[in-house]
Amino acid sequence: MPRAAIVGGGLCGFAAYLTLRRAGVEDVTVFSPESDPAAAFRRRASAIRQTHMRSESDGHCLPTSFPGLAVREALGRRTPAPLVASVCDRYHPTVETFLVHVDELRASSGWAPVATRIERIAAANGGFELDGHGVFEHVLVATGHPGLSVPDELRDDPRAVHAYEPHDYAETVCVVGAGLAAATEWRNALAAGARVTSVRRREPTHRPLNVPRPYLSKRGLARFHRLDADVRAATLHDLLGPSYPREAHVEVPVERRVNRADQVICATGFLQGFRHDRLLARLVDEHRPATVNGWIELGPDATVPTLTDATRTLALGGVAAQWAYPAADTLMGARYVAHSFARRCRTR
Amino acid sequence: MSYTLRGRLESRLAALVLPVLVAAAIHEWWTIELAGLMAAVGLALDLTYHRPLAYQPGWAAVPIGLLELGIVTALMYALDIRAPLTWAIVFYTGAWLWTQLLAHALLPLWRMSWAEDGGELGVRATSVAAALLTLPFAGAGGVYWHSLPPLVRLGAGVHQGPIYIDRRERLVGQAGAVVRGGIVVRHRDVTISNVRVIGGEYGISVLGVRNVTLDHVTVERARLDGIHTRHSSVAIHHCKVDMRGIALGQGIDISYGLIQGTSVVDHCTVVGGRDGIVMHGSMGMLMHNDVSGTAMTGISMVEMSMGEVSHNTVTSALGIGILCGDHSMCELEHNTVTETRRDDMTGNKMRAGIALEVEFESEATVAHNRLFANPRALALFLGGFVDWH
User: Fold this and answer.
1) Are residues A39 and A185 in the same domain?
2) Are strands B329-333 and A295-296 parallel, antiparallel or unpaired?
3) For range B229-252, the mean pLDDT
4) Which of A67, A154, B126, B361 has the fewest CB atoms found within 10 Å of its own CB?
5) Complex ipTM > 0.90
6) Which residues of B touch A67 (CB under 8 A)?
């Protein structure tokens, strides 16, 4: 029986763990300093006062898309309304529903990560050495977002706070950014009685999910995977630009620069690129996989080609896997990576 | 769901397995035919949907299902699949619900990556589905093929008759095939097509059997009747019967076939003879025929016959154009009767050049007939009754 390891115990690692269990892979070790897989999500959702998920019914951690959260809610409330909303793509579970779901799964799945942060992944004969924890044949690295992104010019500005850090609202608020976090901040700040202005480099796209739906399945992915590295990097840059569902839109005045507002909220997302992730940066320095514009080049199944062969697998999950699956930082993306990884664990 | 083309087709195949197996288990031809039609329509439409539907939301299954139901129903009628409409809709709806259950729950549960694979099931699962689908259709096809009568080809040239058919058979004449001396059919499930018959007492006679089809046959110079059926049910399509110079024979005579079921004569041309097309004590439909130059009646439905005489053209009949007589019940609709001639030689008022005649306790529904250049358009005798529409 192969030994599989998951480095990172966030939602992506958790989904991968559940998928491996479902696939019959028994020897799975998870390394994570945090035992609650939803801890980071919980903090961020709380910071921006997010009430509903952007994802739909299948934005959950189970290995299969069915039964989704709509089914769960329909059974719980004894009404078909969530199912009807789901087939109309209008179902968005509440954050609370999602977190309860994660807690239940966590309790029932035997989730018990080894409480440590892996500092080095070293290719070894027939697998990968993870610090001093031994050699694992199949390793999935799902370390999550490497940190919050704050524009350089605001780094030392005492008025600035990142959207994903706890904050209240001043009388005048300038929100930097144009994604869903920014739209949520506009709404919340207005509701709190603040005067709100928006500063953004790129105009937001209105779409229901993080990426156009065909990119969630083989249909769009096949074309995406055929793109040359440079074109794919450019496509990713476009796809990962600011976007939010049309329903989340709030009209606020737009300014070109940060003004004299009492408070500047940076809804500018996360640091991007493997260099910001200590573990991945070291992996690249030591093993020299191909990289493009801050991305580690991955195969369609999110594996690192130069470190994956018939005997071993090194795969990336979460935001680092967007090279293979543009929505890899979502729950559907976590499932995509987990399915591919489970297939390799089962068949190698 | 964003299906790949392959995923659409594979998921469709998987969804069809259960309905096809159910159809096979019901032991009715129409269920197999309907399932086959659903499969063909579904797979063909999948090829059509693929491009415009880059993403297919769940609700789209309803209009797509209704569209497919409409097409399947229309084709069911066009292809003459004899399915009871209500049960056909029940069958289709059941299959549709099963498809939804599969797509939303069972396939994602069974194959973890079904959704992200765009509905693809993999080679092994698709092969199993295809095999399960093929078996019932292959079995049904085998049964159908086995039950087909043997095919006998009649080569070009003259064949001396009479030819006597006493087994299930499809007799198909090649171009130029001629039978001299008549054909006698004495077995059920016989089809004769593309054959020209010359002479004989009767051109073609069908005696005491059912399910006989005469298609594109030509009869000339028979001494009595062109086509003569007794105690039989026949379907005669696209025939030509030339009775010119035969004073006592009928073009097509269908008699005493009531117990064998309905007979049909359509798109036939009959010239000359005593009666053009006559039906005694039988049940049937005489439609779209062209009858001319007869010496007794153009078309007659008599002796407790029941049926429809519609869309026929009767020209230059002596005495009577179309007759419904002797306790018969007839629907006389959309016929054209012209230039009927008075039969003054007999002095019989009932033969005074009447386009439509209903006599002797017969009842006829008469509607939309075109009657012109006849001495009399309509006449009722001896308790004949007409219901006008």
Assistant:
1) no
2) unpaired
3) 95
4) B361
5) no
6) 105
Question: Which residues of chain B does A218 touch, with a Cβ-Cβ cutoff of 8 Å?
Answer: 4, 7, 116-118, 120
Give B108's contacts in chain A (Cβ within 8 Å). Answer: 64-66
Q: Is B220 left (phi over 0), alpha (psi -120 to 50) or beta?
A: beta
Which one is predicted more confidently, B366 or B146? Answer: B366
Distance between CA atoms of residues B98 and B108, nearest Å: 14
With CB atoms and an 8 Å threshold, state whether A219 touches B113: no
Please report residues of B whose CB lies closer than 8 A to that of A343: 113
- Provide the Cα torsion B258, B262, B263, B267; round to 10°: 150
Closest in A66, A87, A217 to B116, CB measured: A217
* A23-69 pLDDT, tens digit each: 999 899 999 999 999 999 999 999 999 999 999 988 999 999 899 99
pLDDT value at residue B150? 87
Predicted TM-score of the model (pTM) = 0.72
Alpha helices, DSSP H only, in B120-279? 123-147
Judgement on whether residues A41 and A103 belong to the same structural domain of the protein:
yes
Whether A275 and A329 share a structural domain: yes
List the single residue in A86, A339, A342 with the smallest CB-CB distance to B116: A339
Same domain, A15 and A116: yes
Cα(B222)–Cα(B373) distance, integer angstroms: 31
Dihedral sign computed on CA atoms, order A227, A337, B53, A243:
negative
User: pLDDT confidence of A1, banded at 50, 70, 90?
Assistant: low
Say whether residue B108 is in contact with chain A using an 8 A CB cutoff.
yes
In this model, does residue B389 exceed pLDDT 80?
A: no
Asked if A265 and A161 count as a contact pair (C-beta separation under 8 A), the reply is yes
What was the pLDDT predicted at B293? 96
Please give the average per-residue pLDDT across B171-182, as a whole number: 95
pLDDT score, position B144: 81
- Distance from the Cα of A33 to chain B's closest Cα (Å) equals 29
- Domain that residue A190 falls in: 152-266
Could you tell me the two tokens for A315? Answer: 């795969």
Architecture of domain B151-388: 3 Solenoid (2.160)
Q: Are residues A103 and A209 in the same domain?
A: no
DSSP string, B144-166: HHHHSPPEEEE-SEEEES-EEE-
DSSP 8-state assignment for residue A190:
H
C-alpha R_g of chain B: 28
Contact (Cβ atoms closer than 8 angstroms) between residue B188 and residue B166: no
- pLDDT score, position A347: 65
Q: CA A71: distance to chain centroid? A: 23
Residue A113 shares a structural domain with residue A166: no
Tell me what the pLDDT averaged over chain A comes to.
94
Regarding whether A280 and A134 lie in a shared domain, the answer is yes
DSSP A206: E
Q: Are strands B212-215 and B234-237 parallel, antiparallel or unpaired?
A: parallel
What's the pLDDT score for residue B81?
86
Is-contact A313 A345, C-beta < 8 A? yes
Q: What's the domain count of chain A? A: 2
Residue A94: what are its φ and ψ, rounded to 5°? Answer: -75, 155
Question: Per-residue pLDDT tens for B23-79?
Answer: 988 888 899 999 999 999 999 999 998 889 989 999 999 999 999 999 999 999 988
Q: Which of A18, A211, A216, A218 is most worth mutating to test chain B (most B CB atoms within 10 A of its CB)? A: A218
Same domain? For A143 and A15 the reply is: yes
Q: pLDDT confidence of B353, banded at 50, 70, 90?
A: very high
Q: Of A266, A284, A317, which closes a domain?
A: A266
**With an 8 Å Cβ cutoff, are B57 and A89 in contact?**
yes
Do the Cβ atoms of A218 and B104 come within 8 Å? no
For residue B195, give the nearest of B159, B225, B228, B164 by alpha carbon.
B159
